[in-house]
Specification:
The complex is a heterodimer of chains A (286) and B (258). By secondary structure, chain A is mostly helical. Chain A has one domain: MetI-like (MetI-like fold, Orthogonal Bundle), CATH 1.10.3720.10. In chain A, helix 7 crosses helix 8. Chain A is extended. By secondary structure, chain B is mostly helical. Chain B has a domain of 142 residues: MetI-like fold (Orthogonal Bundle). In chain B, 80% of the residues lie in helices and 0% in strands. In chain B, helix 4 packs antiparallel against helix 10 and helix 8 crosses helix 10.
Chain lengths: 286, 258
């Protein structure tokens, strides 16, 4: 076969080509129609703003200034928000994932039952899976910040709206990932347990959970990294995390403090990432 | 190790909840009337502007949704452009892991470690409200994340084809373009699409800082307690993210199969 013939027989998929073309076109169109001429950034007004901004962030670089600017409670609250939210999201995601996994939420988990399940049982479990998946989709489609905004409006400011916002969005993501791992489990062990007469929950805790645990933990740590990022930012809505102090410095136009706080946030995120990467590497080697 | 990690995690959650004084009773003591108004408005999203009574569904909602899409797409386009050279420089295979590699990886980590909303705040303070600042605010952290993950994907791609090309006299760049990138393409494309979904969400949220995306519409409806309108915008946001999710799922399925 000549190279030409090989080239003509390469795999082609019109949907993929269309998608690539569409994505490319969308980016070009967006860059063209948007009112974001980069020259705006070099307009005289922007330059005046910039020089004022740079003038204001000449820092005072003394230890006392840093201690005064960056309260410890901002850092501890940010970490606590992320931890509490990740914990709640893990619990909620785990429960929802069981209802969303097709191998669990079916009238015949892993083994065909003695007699074929009734139509009602089949439809009933279909509804369970469908509504669990729909819930997960809704939870993760709405960004953390929007959840937080709505919850602050409905519950008032405090730690609850921030924790719930992060937990809801991440429960949607973790639930989906958890359900996928449950469905991918090798069926030998669950089938054996089921054959011995184990109930759905017994099969899950005896044969499924031990195999998926490691993977679940990896996912939890990945989401914890994102939670630290988002815990900083939801503070802008009035929850006392780093973001609250950033917003406060911004409204007082103390831009040196704002930049310092954003820098501390960046360091916190880098530290969180490093810790999570270290833990995940340890878990992988087990 | 695993059990210890789970137990530590559970204890840490409890400790964090105590530190933040999370009391379940506070949830019940919230504003029940407001909550009721909000929930009962869900099945009846507004089709007219609640302040002026004008028909608003097609023009205003579509405008906000379109702005959300264009900011996200422009941000992603810029991010991919910036990420491309950084990806190659940060990959162990092509940079050899020297000091350039370390420097580029540090740069990438710095770009990622500041959230897009905080980049937006910095640009708002430094330059003012221009649409370019929103797009660049999305592009910086997204370029960092893309470069990190893309360089890992390039390093994980199979080496045989690239080695064969280089043994036949191809340069590093030629082996990258003709062997490594085509082999890593399915993974690169699916991760890129996933990030586009994230960019949509970020672009919507940037609206809370005055950019004309869905977040702006959401916050102004909520501020004037126009809950029916709020639901219209929430449905629009959900629909947008859902469409992107379905699209990227369909593409990913075909990429894996091809």
């Amino acid at each position: 076969m000549t190279l030409d013939a090989l080239y003509r027989e390469r795999p082609r998929d019109w949907f993929l080509r269309g998608s690539a073309l569409f994505a490319f076109g969308l980016v070009l169109l967006s860059l063209a129609v948007g009112d974001y001429a980069l020259s705006d950034m070099w307009s005289p007004r922007a330059m005046r703003n910039l020089s004022r901004f740079l003038g204001e962030i000449q820092p005072t670089w003394t230890l006392a200034w840093w201690v005064e600017t960056v309260p410890l409670v901002a850092v501890t609250n940010t970490v606590a928000l992320a931890v509490a939210a990740t914990g709640l999201a893990t619990g909620a995601g785990a429960v929802l994932s069981l209802a969303a996994a097709r191998t669990m939420a079916t009238p015949e988990p892993w083994l065909p039952a003695g007699k074929p399940p009734s139509m009602i049982a089949r439809r009933g479990w279909d509804i369970v899976v469908g509504s669990a998946r729909f819930t997960l989709t809704v939870l993760r489609a709405i960004p953390e910040y929007v959840w937080a905004f709505l919850l602050v409006a409905l519950l008032g400011t405090g730690a609850w709206p921030a924790v719930l916002a992060l937990a809801l969005h991440n429960a949607g993501i973790l639930g989906k990932l958890f359900a996928e791992t449950v469905e991918d489990v090798d069926s030998a062990a669950p089938r054996a347990l089921r054959g011995l007469g184990g109930t759905r929950l017994q099969v899950f805790s005896g044969a499924v959970l031990p195999t998926v645990m490691n993977r679940w933990l990896l996912y939890v740590f990945v989401r914890w990294e994102t939670c630290i990022r988002e815990a900083t930012v939801v503070g802008l809505l009035g929850v006392v995390s780093l973001g609250w102090f950033i917003g406060d410095a911004r409204s007082r136009t103390h831009y040196d403090e704002m930049v310092a706080l954003i820098g501390v946030g960046a360091l916190l995120i880098l530290a969180g990432d490093a810790m999570s990467i270290w833990l995940r590497a340890k878990l992988r080697n087990r | 190790m695993r059990r210890a990690t789970w137990v530590t995690g559970a204890l840490a959650t409890l400790l964090a909840a105590l530190w933040l004084r999370l009391d379940p009773r506070d949830l019940l003591a919230a504003k029940p009337d407001l909550l009721w108004d909000f929930i009962t408005a869900a099945p009846r999203p507004a089709l007219v502007d609640e302040a002026t009574g004008e028909i608003f569904l097609p023009p205003l909602v579509l405008e906000a949704a379109w702005a959300t899409v264009t900011f996200a797409a422009a941000g992603m386009g810029l991010a991919v452009l910036v990420a491309a050279p950084l990806t190659v420089l940060a990959s162990t295979r092509f940079s050899g892991g020297g000091w350039t590699c370390t420097a580029v990886r540090t740069l990438i980590a710095g770009m990622r470690s500041v959230h897009e909303l905080l980049w937006a705040i910095l640009f708002l303070a430094a330059i003012g409200l221009t649409q370019a600042s929103a797009v660049i605010a999305i592009a910086i952290p997204f370029a960092g994340t893309l470069a990190k993950v893309f360089s890992e994907l390039l390093d994980e791609a199979p080496v045989e084809a690239a080695n064969a090309l280089q043994a036949g006299g191809a340069s590093e760049l030629q082996s990258l373009v003709f062997a490594v990138i085509p082999q890593a393409m399915p993974d690169l494309a699916s991760y890129g699409l996933y990030r586009f979904e994230c960019a949509l969400r970020s672009s919507a949220v940037l609206g809370f800082f005055g950019f004309p995306t869905l977040g702006y519409a959401l916050s102004s409806s909520a501020d004037s307690a126009h809950f029916h309108e709020l639901w219209t915008y929430l449905y629009a946001l959900f629909l947008l993210v859902w469409i992107a999710d379905r699209w990227s799922w369909a593409v990913r399925r075909r990429l894996v199969r091809a």
